Description:
The chain is mostly helical. Helices cover about 50% and strands about 5% of the residues.
Amino acid sequence: MLINEEKNRSNQRHAVICSGVVAVVIILLALKWPLALFALPLAWCVYHLLRRRTLRRIKVVAEPLPEDWLEVLQSHVVFYQALDEAGRERFRNLVKVFIDEVPVTGIRTDVDDVTHVLVAASAVIPIFGFEDWEYSGLGEILIYPGAFNEEYQTDQGVSRNTLGMIGVNHLSGVMILSKPDLVSGFQNHNDKRNVGIHEFAHLVDKADGSVDGLPNRVAGDAAAPWIGWVAEELKRDPRAREEIDDYAYTNEAEYFAVLSEYFFEAPELLQQRHPEVYSMMRKMYHQDTRSFLSAVKPRARRVGRNSPCPCGSSKKYKKCCSRRTKRGMRLST
Length: 333
């Protein structure tokens, strides 16, 4: 998502060549039909269209991160806190580009700075180890006021047990997240649960066209061991792995997403209990999370029963989201 000098020059060359080809074609046509010269501005339009996203990203990155957004990163996102200054700058730039390009829409709830930045942080964390990454096909993120059911309903009386979902069929290109569960995922860094990371892990998985639990960026020497490990794990009784959430055993895709939460939330514990899994995920994500996350001591961010609910409803937590934080079914792929 970030543009360096080499990418900028490459994009500029591509734009010049394409617009030049268009101009030459128009001039050749004008030799027979002089009125074709009126189409010459199309060459400039082609150049502008091919340069537009690159130039906008350069502009967005050059602008300072709003102070309110920076405060959210510093107070909520342990991953950001653990980075050195160069890493933090790159993280901030990725957040700026993501927020600029992917609309986040509230459905019967407001999208405040905390929500917006945590969505972006959820997107950046899984791909931070990749040199060049695009969440292609992601058109919009919908924020719901709470957990929802398979019909996307949050009304009173319906069974609400889904915290996040990547859309399929008519909702392809859409991600849905429960606002209070998105926020709570960043409040306890060691609980191995983060619905935002979970959903974006699915998009990392989906980059090769299918959500099958094997991202296309898996290193060659990690793919076969991972496939073999997951195949054996899915045969296991989930109760035999108390430290891994039962939902991981739904299928290969969910195993990858749940273990991704584990890898970014409690990497030291994962490395201690399953060093072979940690090693494979380190290769898949090109990140050694244990080496820098384990040194961070995040501040406790417990929400009291009488505290304002983090979903922004203005109700007390005990009368709002504390009653609907059942993990249940995590998403439908």
